[in-house]
Write a structure and sequence with these properties.
About 15% of the residues lie in helices and about 35% in strands. With about 270 residues, it is an alpha/beta fold. The structure holds flavin-adenine dinucleotide and FE2/S2 (inorganic) cluster (FES).
Length: about 270
């Protein structure tokens, strides 16, 4: 059940270039949030920006987490792109912030047996929503593809290394890993996954990346869930400002915030 609640900033640090990690003590959301769900954050007390901003939760520590000190904490890894995220960079430890969450549907975990191929593909800040998914799949073999424009846009690499995962990195300028897009890199490695075996694929990133991915995967072998990004007004289904076109005959327009942000990739009709 989503709730509107206050949290307290515990840390807000620049991790590199335009990327920051915001820690918030907010046990009611940390306790409930599932991989792929998001929160709407009131980024400043001022009237501007008026609208809340949507963010995935990178890490969360529920009440039963073994690290007692961190219980109730959640972390947002964000990119400074405009007015709202600029305002976020000025948040200080001890400040109060208001959040609504958990919102959206989140990822459906792959079925057992654990031998199934599981592929995670993240572009830029898209990797944020995939980290809690990987954590939920701890112990299972993962193939993780991380992409970005340049080295500074590769996020979460060290965190993903703690899992049982094969990691592949692509940057468009070649400054880290293979030069090219993360979808090209996935395509070049596709022979690793046997044609006759189902492969569970989880993706999040810019529209161009998801569109390219939809163009190369055969839904017969690849069962792909993708988390979409959209500009959001309310974040909880009221304004219809975030719709995407789908091939569902009865509900061709679906709300990224409510029916999503996670969709079956083959259901999305790209404009
Ligand atoms: C479900 C969901 C989860 C998200 N999770 C994260 C996250 O974990 N980390 C993170 O850094 N960002 C995330 N985003 C994107 C984030 O919400 C936007 O970057 C933020 O709202 C921008 O606010 P702003 O005021 O700084 O930018 P604005 O001033 O509103 O816009 C600045 C520029 O960013 C573009 N932009 C703004 N919002 C979006 C968007 N939603 N999608 C694509 N382009 C956009 C605008 O077109 C404009 O060019 C997520 C978005 C959604 C929908
Ligand atoms: S943002 Fe209002 S319906 Fe999705």
């Amino acid at each position: 059940m989503p709730l509107q609640t206050d949290g307290m900033v515990i840390s807000n640090k620049r991790i590199k270039s335009v990327y920051y990690l915001l820690g918030i003590d907010c046990s009611s959301i940390a306790d409930q949030i599932k991989p792929g769900q998001f929160v709407m954050l009131k980024v400043s007390d001022d009237r501007s920006p008026l609208l809340r901003r949507p963010f995935s939760v990178y890490k969360s520590y529920p009440a039963n987490h073994p690290e007692k000190r961190k219980r109730g904490w959640l972390f947002i890894l964000y990119k400074r792109v405009g007015k709202g995220t600029q305002a976020m960079t000025t948040l200080k430890s001890g400040e109060k912030v208001n959040l609504i969450g958990p919102l959206g549907n989140g990822f459906t975990l792959p079925p057992l047996p654990s031998s199934k191929n599981i592929v995670v593909i993240g572009g830029g800040v898209g990797i944020v929503s995939l980290y809690p998914l990987a954590e939920a799949l701890k112990g299972r073999k993962l193939f993780v593809f991380i992409g970005g424009k340049a080295q500074d846009d590769i996020l979460g690499l060290e965190d993903f290394k703690t899992f049982n995962s094969n990691i592949y990195v692509a940057t468009e300028d070649g400054s880290l890993g293979v030069q090219g897009t993360v979808v090209d890199l996935f395509l070049s490695q596709r022979k690793r996954f046997r044609r006759d075996e189902e492969c569970y694929l989880y993706a999040c990133g810019p529209v161009a990346m998801l569109k390219a991915l939809a163009g190369i995967i055969k839904p017969k072998n690849f069962i792909c869930q993708a988390s979409l990004e959209a500009r959001m007004g309310c974040g909880f289904g009221a304004c219809w400002g975030c719709v995407v076109k789908t091939n569902h005959p009865k509900t061709p327009y679906q709300r990224v915030c409510k029916e999503g942000p996670v969709f079956t990739l083959k259901d999305i009709l790209w404009e």
